[in-house]
Amino acid sequence: MPLDAKEHRTTNKLINETSPYLQQHAHNPVNWYPWGEEAFKKAKEEDKPVFLSIGYSTCHWCHVMEEESFEDEEVADLLNENFVSIKVDREERPDIDGLYMQVAQMMTGRGGWPLTIVMTPGKDPFFAATYIPKESHHSRLGMVDLLPKLAEVYETEHEKIESTIAKVKTRLNQMQQGVSSDIPDRSVIDAATGKLSNRFDEDHGGFGVAPKFPSAQNLMLLLRSWKHNDDEWHLHMVERTLQQMRKGGIYDQIGFGFHRYSTDRKWLLPHFEKMLYDQAMLVYALIETYQATSNEYYADIAAETIEYVLREMTSEEGGFFSAQDADSEGEEGKFYIWSIDETESILNKQEFEVATQLYGIQEKGNFLDEATRKKTGKNILHVNKESKEVAKALGIDENEIQDTIQTINTKLLRRRKERVTPLTDDKILVDWNGLMIAALAKAGRVLNNSKYLEAARKATDFILKEMRTEEGGLYHRYRQSEADIDAYSTDYAFLVWGLIELYESTFDPNYLSISKQLLTFLETHFWDEDNGGFYLSADFSEELMVRQKPAFDGSLPSANSVAAYVFLRLARLLGNYELENVAEEILAAFGKQIEARPTSHTMMLVALEYLLGMSREVVLVGTRNSQDLQAMISALQQKFLPSVSVLVKDDESISEKLASVAPFTEHFDSVNKQATAHVCIDQNCKLPTTNLDEMLSSVKAK
Q1: Where are the beta strands (DSSP E) in 35-124?
Q2: Alpha helices of 248-329 — where are they, by DSSP H?
Q3: Which of 7, 152, 165, 212 has the highest CB neighbour count under 10 A?
């Protein structure tokens, strides 16, 4: 709920916090504390258990629990009397969230947000749950009955609590240790794509039944498997999934951008929050699919999604905001859904006829109340029929109907802007920004769009100016002119991904130099010297129960997955095979884990595919704006060549900078003052060529 939405009778310790999520709770009657020494000191002095609640600003069920319980005086009194209550923004503190989410899954077999943990003043958990209603229902305890029981357990059942804590710690330590192994071979990639194929939903795209998540890293792996094996089925799975998502309610048909996930098989009914990382990863996958197919449809979806991000998710300084809420006026999806009467009142007769058929607008609606599963009379816009079908059914020219659809969208979007807008979580996170920078840089070069490249550059400049530490590291979060919170391994890995894409789009060697610096910092402060792989938090960060080292992919790819990928890509660009050794050690560290659950590590398998394939480096030498050099650059950028690294030497200063960071490029020159390609495959360089077709043939790009 916005802070200015009503009179505030109470104010708690969250009032001075920067996080929008914590500020949402600053006027709850619960005496919330932020995570920190003050809260745990109070709990220890008063010998009270800690009630930890973890969520994020755009989480629908977090809002529900706040309205039912945390704004309720009865529940607040129980919490204030018996507990020290702490609120954590999971997006600011993924280390805390990740740790206690593991605990919840161990204790209950499930996880999600809001995450509820009850623990000792020493931060040791003995109870876990997700959303808890205020009142008890059937066998499910509500807050008013549960809180007194938990307080009594803490007072009287010390041995039981200690036993629970001991089991949790033992299991957590076992989970973090890992087992080093050999680097997996290609069979594990085949196993992953086979499992994805078995789960593929041919009717509606995606994998499994419901809920369905975008999981762009799955699509990236399938594209590479298609490229390697020439298996059209793998490409079909990617295309079908992206097409059906674009048609579904998970895609904002008039304002663009993807909602977080679909609660049903058909991609119709989403949870309506929009996350920056989903936009970034899907744009990246869409651009790769466009490269693979030359089908403008995918480029158009990517362009629409970027339009949304630049319009609504970009700060004046250039950084990208984190998310937009699912709720407005206390209802999930209210901003996005339409009644047939409202639609008719906005559009003329022909437009209304087109809209009802195109977007499947019904009198009873297609939007179901999540609790009752009954239709509400409201509609989620989705592509119910293709425009050609609608034109034929209504006797409209196919060219004319495109103009009509544009008018419909413009009118509906104009009316939607008059509604109460969902909250935008305007904190800027380095890791999520790194993904968006990567997507924009790739889209900019493939679609030849300077606006996208400029947005990527501006975001990068902002982060490097405002979010670097004096020691050369990074901060994780920026908001209200303040950078804070020690960065995580995701921040370093994801930002370097963005910098590498920026280099291959602009050929500015500074991006390679900064990438090398950041990966050196990452290796120095996050590397597990005993078992390999990167910890989530640095060696100078706050100590928790265990130091996590995640490798499996969730909504986001893991730090170790992306680290393996970017260490490999930078190794090839720089000719620095010490970097490649780090990637190999990551893959070996998690080899057993990857083999046991390959579809949970698809981004790691993208890195493995890159490692196992032939390395192909192309150094282009010529005059930057010359037609022949630009033709070579464009030919390589337009095609889907995931194993090809491209470097450019043009003027003298660029050549010197490039040679300082990638020494193997120093002696590559042009032939007869023409644009020249030096192609190296698996560390063996072919004779230079000035012929574009010969260059493409050398990298097997034709």
Answers
A1: 50-55, 84-89, 115-119
A2: 276-293, 296-312
A3: 212
Runs of H (alpha helix) within 83-185: 94-108, 143-156, 158-177
Q: Are 62 and 113 in contact (CB under 8 A)?
A: yes
Distance from C-alpha of 165 to C-alpha of 159, rounded to nearest angstrom = 10
State how far the Cα of 608 lies from the Cα of 601, in Å rounded to an integer.
10
Rounded Cα distance, 252 and 308, in Å: 10
Cα atoms in the Cβ-side hemisphere of radius 13 Å centred on 7: 1
Q: For 366-513, where are the E strands, in sequence order?
A: 379-380, 424-425, 428-429, 475-479, 482-486
The DSSP 8-state label assigned to residue 4 in this structure reads T
| pTM (predicted TM-score) | 0.96
Give me 144's structure tokens. Answer: 């008013």
> How many C-beta atoms surround the C-beta of residue 657 within 10 A?
16
In what order do the strands lie in the sheet containing 684-685?
644-649, 616-621, 676-681, 684-685
Q: H helices of 590-646, where?
A: 591-596, 602-612, 627-638
The predicted structure's pLDDT at residue 209: 92
Is the bond into 184 cis (omega within 30 degrees of 0)? no
Q: Which residue has the tokens 């890195």?
A: 607
Give the tens place of pLDDT for each residue, 325-346.
Answer: 999 998 999 999 999 999 999 9
> Count of alpha carbons within 13 Å of 39, Cβ hemisphere only?
24
Write the Ramachandran bin of 129: left for phi over 0, alpha for psi from -120 to 50, otherwise beta: beta
User: Residue 406: how many CB atoms within 10 A of its CB?
Assistant: 10
User: The domain at 13-177 falls in which architecture?
Assistant: 3-Layer(aba) Sandwich (3.40)
HSE-up of 289 (CA within 13 Å, CB side)?
A: 32
Is 477 strand, coil or helix? strand
Q: pLDDT digit string (tens) for 411-435?
A: 999 999 999 999 999 999 999 999 9
Are 220 and 258 in contact by the 8 Å Cβ rule? The answer is no
Whole-angstrom distance, CA of residue 31 vs CA of residue 421: 29
CATH number of 336-418: 1.10.10
Which structure tokens are listed for 21? 């999520």
Residues of the chain where predicted confidence (pLDDT) is lower than 70: 1-7, 177-180, 370-371, 701-702
Domain boundaries, the chain: 13-177, 336-418, 616-698
- The confidence score (pLDDT) of residue 3 equals 41
The CA distance from 313 to 474, in Å, is 22
Instruction: Report the Cα 693 to chain-centroid distance in Å.
Output: 38
Check if the beta carbon of residue 85 is closer than 8 Å to that of residue 33. Answer: yes
Both tokens of 338, joined, read 């339409």
Alpha helices per DSSP H over 447-488 = 450-466
Judged by DSSP in three states, 397 sits in coil
